[in-house]
Amino acid sequence: MKRKIFIDGSEGTTGLKIFDRFKERKDIEIMKIESEKRKDINERRRLINESDVTFLCLPDEAAKESAALAENDNVIVIDASTAHRTKAGWAYGFPELSAGHRDMISNGKKIAVPGCHATGFISLVFPLIKEGIIGADYPLTINSISGYSGAGKGMITEYEKETRIKDYDAPRLYALAQHHKHLPEMKKVCGLNQEPIFNPVIADYFQGMVVSVPLYANLLSKKYKLNDLINVYHDFYAHAKLIKVVPAESEAITSNFLCCNGMAGRDDLKIYLAGNDERIVLYAQFDNLGKGASGAAVQCMNIALGYDEDTGLVAGLVG
Question: Do residues 66 and 18 lie in contact, with contact meaning Cβ atoms separated by under 8 Å?
């Protein structure tokens, strides 16, 4: 039986990438909305309630409006916006974190897809909190470099103009006032007492990102060496299909470069640990449009519908 899928916001970057992941699938029927009716609330309500799964690929306020249109209790709503990531009653779409997270995705009808920066940060910090390696008051810093596709269609257009401004030729820091829409979910999901210091950077390449979190070993709960922490992450993600912990002395680290677009076009995520026994840096390398957005949304859908979670995704072959 084919499952009916409606993508509300199918013309945006995330919506288009979700659609791409369904092109070869025979178990999916895409319900399309006529272009002139994309803002017709009654037509959207009809499609949402006739679907098995509706993806919301919309700005926050529009996502809230569309979520409220779901009157059929059997419809699974998967929201890729920021609107519901910290809301009660919504499953947080990061199944690798715990059996509880996976169960909520599997059994829930409302699923919020994590933000891209948050995905990298949480993949690195959640295990530290869960295993008692750092406390909820640890002074965390996150550095994140992403391709410009993460900024949406408007920014993509600006970056790809032949007459673009010179500023776009170099990496650009933003959110300088320490206000960013991904910070609340970082704090809540990890159970932190305070939001981390966040330094996001947008750079002149299309997609892919690396999120890094530095640690002082002498501030950890007990004496951990670099290899000890690598083993912690190996054990934590041992059964994860879409997250791989890279062994120590990996080629990418020993060459002293870690490429921010190294996972572009993929839906899985690599974790690296580097540094030394006094100063350790954690790295998450993935695609902001894959595990950081559309790939994660499809992974959640697969789990909710009882499919193998990596069905239709580019994953499982990371080296």
Answer: no
